[in-house]
Specification:
The structure holds 2 protein chains of 2 kinds. By secondary structure, chain A is mostly helical. Helix content of chain A is 74%, strand content 3%. Chain A has helices spanning 2-37, 44-61, 66-93, 97-119, 147-169, 171-181, 183-188, 193-218, 225-240, 245-261, 271-285; strands at 134-137, 142-145. The radius of gyration of chain A is 19 Å and the shape is globular. The mean pLDDT of chain A is 90. Chain B has 12 helices and no strands. In chain B, helix 2 (36-53) packs antiparallel against helix 3 (59-81), helix 2 (36-53) packs parallel to helix 4 (86-106) and helix 6 (130-157) packs across helix 7. The model of chain B has no long low-confidence stretch (mean pLDDT 91). Classes of the chains: A mainly alpha, B mainly alpha. The A-B interface holds A 34, 39-40, 42, 88, 91-92, 95, 97-99, 101-103, 105-107, 109-110, 113-114, 116-117, 120-121, 230-231, 234-235, 238, 242, 267, 269-270, 272-273, 275-276, 279-280, 283-284, 287 and B 30, 32, 34, 80-81, 83-88, 90-92, 94-96, 98-99, 102-103, 105-106, 217-218, 220-221, 224, 263, 265-266, 268-270, 272-273, 275-277, 279-280, 283-284, 287.
């Protein structure tokens, strides 16, 4: 039993870390929107799906390679995020964050069905070059790593680095952090909350879209691609502390590795339930998350 | 056609029950529950598993067990998040309904997985003609709605309900006034969850078949829509709203089918889109519903 675990462990850890890096993008998107707009925007589910389909159109219909396709997977959900926030969410946020949360669930179902209307329920896949997995001999175990996995993780890390640089060093990034930290003080300092809200939605939903396409690259695309990942995304955000961007990264790694390691003791189909268990454990023992509810 | 109308009336009653349950949680106590369909599923599965798959309990006992199990689940969920902002309850309830679906789909030995549970007994099913069974069940549903409605009215007009409304409007003030807010919140959520589970159990016994794919988030939207359309906070509104939602859902079935050149999946997509959009439009333009809750509101000095 133990030798079996030791043999499996490196593979599961690698898979978990890759899954965690991919998960980090939508988790950052969700948590960033929460930090700026103060409500859980559940429409990340359909925006992730939208990203996956935008990338699909670019990749399969127009024959673009993965990287330019990812650009479209960012732009389309980002624009939709801003539009939906202007038209649907903004008026409702005034009624209360919970009303906005309810409307976001309705919105995600509406958008998901727009996608279903045009693309149907069929499973789709990207047009990818076929690569053979690399096999690495660790002495006590073999490690199988897919080049696509590595590319996805690398893309994800690059995007995260860009987000952190943007938030740390640009004027707009600082503005967003200020609003997340203390909206009233930011207002007094003359920061326009509306602009920051739009930026938050743009960046947040864009990241969610890129995450959605990476998820699609990892598995397959259908109108529920985003929805299936949503529990893990919530878990990553809550585990790291709702509203904290570094927290979302840490949370995503914890949830990603946790989901993979769960295979040792649970059936593989319970992977997504692990995220829920993680939420419960964190709420019981450390309600503000690992890094606490502080944006950046 | 008659059978169809009776079946729709039964469904309107079941949605009415769940809207009443949501009204206790959201309308009275101001707590969010985005996992209503999860509680409905827990109720349906509890009663079905105890009356057909793992035991042959009589139906009333199965339904009672469903009520107890969902109440406990509701109390746990509420208790866990009661000290946090409502956002956490939103996330946990939404997650709860997904986990219920995952467990129902994967615990194959326990729940028969995605194949679902069939041959769930119904009152006098098989002994009477199907049309008569439909009518009997309509009677049972109507009675259930009436009883739950009266209970909810009792809660609403009692001092207990007043405390719940106070918590909804400002839980800090209520706590300062010496009310055990945590306990009230937990109890209200448990009562609402129990009513939803009760409706779920009835649904199983009426439909004779339940499966995980029947418990999708769209059903939560139906229930929220029913309560919002009727008037959040009012029990009569919840019941009337449910009837309107079922009428609207069925209406779209006929209208959308008239659009030429749509595939079946597109028809389904248009209907779901319309229902979700209707909820958003209602929340935006008529959040008080058709039958607004009546109470005196004082303007806060200095508030614009």
């Amino acid at each position: 039993m133990l030798s079996h675990v030791i043999e499996e462990l490196p593979q599961l850890l690698v898979n978990g870390l890759v899954a965690g890096t991919i998960l980090a993008l939508p988790a950052i998107g969700f948590t960033a929107i929460y930090a700026v707009l103060r409500f859980p925007n559940f429409s990340i589910a359909s925006h992730a799906t939208m990203g996956a389909y935008a990338g699909y159109v670019a990749n399969v219909w127009f024959g673009l390679p993965v990287i330019p396709s990812l650009l479209l997977a960012f732009i389309i959900p980002a624009l939709s995020g801003v539009a939906c926030d202007e038209v649907v969410m903004k008026p409702l946020r005034r009624t209360g964050p919970l009303t906005a949360a309810i409307a976001a669930v309705a919105l995600t179902i509406a958008l998901e069905n727009v996608i279903r209307f045009f693309f149907g329920n069929d499973l789709r896949g990207y047009d990818l070059p076929v690569w053979r997995d690399w096999r690495i001999d660790l002495g006590f175990a073999f490690l199988r790593v897919g080049p696509q996995q590595v590319e996805n993780a690398a893309i994800s890390i690059a995007v995260m680095a860009a987000v952190f640089l943007f938030l740390a060093f640009t004027r707009t990034g600082k503005m967003m952090r200020a609003v997340a930290d203390n909206p009233m003080l930011a207002g007094i300092k003359g920061i326009n909350a509306d602009t920051v809200a739009r930026l938050g939605s743009f960046m947040g939903m864009g990241l969610v879209g890129v995450g959605g396409m990476l998820l699609g690259l990892d598995t397959s695309i259908d109108p529920l691609t985003g929805f299936r990942a949503v529990l893990s995304v919530f878990a990553a955000a809550v585990v790291g502390g709702l509203g904290s961007i570094p927290g979302a990264v840490v949370g995503a790694a914890v949830v990603g590795v946790g989901e993979e390691l769960s295979i040792l003791i649970l059936d593989a189909s319970y992977r997504t339930a692990v995220g829920f268990i993680a939420i419960l454990v964190v709420l019981i023992f450390r309600p503000r998350g690992i890094l606490g509810e502080r944006a950046y | 056609m008659e059978n169809y109308l009776v079946a729709m009336a039964v469904f309107a009653g079941l949605y009415g029950l769940m809207a009443l349950g949501l009204n206790v949680i959201w309308g009275m106590a101001g707590m969010i529950n985005l996992g209503l369909v999860g509680f409905m599923a827990v109720g349906a599965y509890t009663s079905a598993l105890l009356t057909v798959r793992h035991a042959t309990w009589p139906m009333p006992l199965g339904i009672l067990a469903a009520v107890i199990v969902t109440a406990t689940a509701g109390a746990l969920v509420a208790r866990l998040t009661a000290k946090m902002k409502g956002d956490y309850l939103a996330i946990v309830t939404l997650g709860f309904s997904e986990v219920v679906r995952i467990i129902a789909s994967n615990e194959i030995r326990f729940t028969n997985g995605t194949d679902g549970i069939s041959a769930i007994p119904g009152p006098w099913r098989g002994q009477v003609a199907p049309a008569t069974f439909n009518l009997i069940f309509l009677g049972i549903t109507a009675l259930a709605v009436l009883v739950v409605y009266l209970i909810c009215q009792r809660i609403r007009h009692s001092p207990y309900g007043r405390v719940l409304r106070a918590i909804r409007d400002d839980d800090q003030v209520t706590a300062v006034a010496g009310k055990p807010v945590l306990r009230f919140k937990t109890e209200a959520f448990a009562v609402g969850a129990a009513i939803t589970g009760f409706a779920g159990a009835l649904y199983g016994h009426y439909n004779a078949y339940i499966a995980p794919e029947g418990f999708v988030p769209l059903i939560t939207i139906y229930i929220v829509l029913a309560l919002t359309a009727g008037g959040t906070g009012t029990n009569a509104g919840a019941v009337i709203g449910a009837a309107l939602v079922v009428a609207f859902m069925e209406g779209t079935r006929f209208v959308v089918a008239e659009i030429p050149g749509l595939a079946a999946v597109q028809v389904a997509a248009v209907r779901e889109f319309l229902i979700a959009t209707l909820l958003i439009v209602l929340l935006r333009f008529r959040p008080q519903g058709l039958f607004p809750e009546r109470h005196i509101r004082h303007r806060l000095p200095g508030a614009s």
